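dumping this here so i dont lose it
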């Protein structure tokens, strides 16, 4: 159900606490990165599991909380990945802009924030490391506001919600004077302020391929958001390239994110972010669509990084 899905990205300058925050979110939802690594190793020693291809370490991840599935997609933080950032941001309905309460906004914050604002995204601002001695959260909020203004944020974007956090100590709050011992206020903010994906589960299946990877056991894998309809493992569908050429194929694996891991799914539906194996030719920007009614999704024109080099 799309109403119960939230697709977000976390934007942060290196060291501002993205990994720590994601770990704390997973932990509050009962998933530990340490345990996950152990499971990985156990599974890696098992050839059958290997063959099934379910031990791929995900770039993206998901957190289940209060009945919601929060997909957190990975964003490259550098200008070198210009085109990729836009493709990734097309999958999400909001971003958490994570800023160190001591350091304030930094160059990498600025680059991805600009892309997000240009795409009309309304970010949630998370002021992290408020436990740090010398932290100056109020001043940093003002600096973030100035940055939004500089980047031509519109009025809605400027009215950003703020959460204060210590990812390290595992708590978040709406106001600096609040008492809090967990990340619940952050989860609530994500549930309330991030719109559910705008998709139609009853239309014919369509997924936009956002990234391509290769796995030695299952071959080429395509990841992206399902914009419409439903899809099943083993189903025959159609890949439509950017010239409109259609290639039929069978989904050999349908994978979804569970915590830090990609797991096989029997079925997935609109709004979710999934990975599909079985198409050895498929590329970024192409559509995977229902065989009964194959319609391409609009390709998002992107300024490729090679063109902007000078
Ligand atoms: P990333 O590069 O954004 O993924 O940053 P990390 O999550 O790796 O964090 C960078 C450093 O900041 C690590 O040493 C963390 O322990 C520390 N850190 C992260 N969050 C907090 C926090 O809320 N408070 C304090 N004091 N340190 C933090």
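and the seq i came up w/
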């Amino acid at each position: 159900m799309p109403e119960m899905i939230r697709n977000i990205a976390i934007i942060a300058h290196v060291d501002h606490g993205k990994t720590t925050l994601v770990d704390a979110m997973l932990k509050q939802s009962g998933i530990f990165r340490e345990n996950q690594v152990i499971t990985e190793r156990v599974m890696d020693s098992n050839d059958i599991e290997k063959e099934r291809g379910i031990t791929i370490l995900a770039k993206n991840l998901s957190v289940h909380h209060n009945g919601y599935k929060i997909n957190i997609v990975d964003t490259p933080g550098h200008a070198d990945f210009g085109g990729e950032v836009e493709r990734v941001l097309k999958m999400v309905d909001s971003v958490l802009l994570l800023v160190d309460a001591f350091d304030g906004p930094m160059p990498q914050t600025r680059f991805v924030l600009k892309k997000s604002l240009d795409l009309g995204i309304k970010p949630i601002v998370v002021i992290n490391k408020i436990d740090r001695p010398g932290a100056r959260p109020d001043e940093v909020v003002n600096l973030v506001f100035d940055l939004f203004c500089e980047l031509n944020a519109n009025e809605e974007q400027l009215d950003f919600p703020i959460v204060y956090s210590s990812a390290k100590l595992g708590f978040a709050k709406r106001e600096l004077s609040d008492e809090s011992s967990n990340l619940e206020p952050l989860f609530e903010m994500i549930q309330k302020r991030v719109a559910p994906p705008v998709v139609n589960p009853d239309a014919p299946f369509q997924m936009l391929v956002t990234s391509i990877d290769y796995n030695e056991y299952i071959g080429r894998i395509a990841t992206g958001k399902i914009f419409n309809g439903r899809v099943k493992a083993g189903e025959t569908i159609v890949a439509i390239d950017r010239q409109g050429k259609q290639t039929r194929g069978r989904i050999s694996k349908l994978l979804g994110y569970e915590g830090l891991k990609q797991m096989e799914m029997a079925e997935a539906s609109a709004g979710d972010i999934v990975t599909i194996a079985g198409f050895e030719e498929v590329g970024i920007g192409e559509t995977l669509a229902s065989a009964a009614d194959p319609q391409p999704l609009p390709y998002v024109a992107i300024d490729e990084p090679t063109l902007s080099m000078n």
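The first strand starts at residue 5 and ends at 12.
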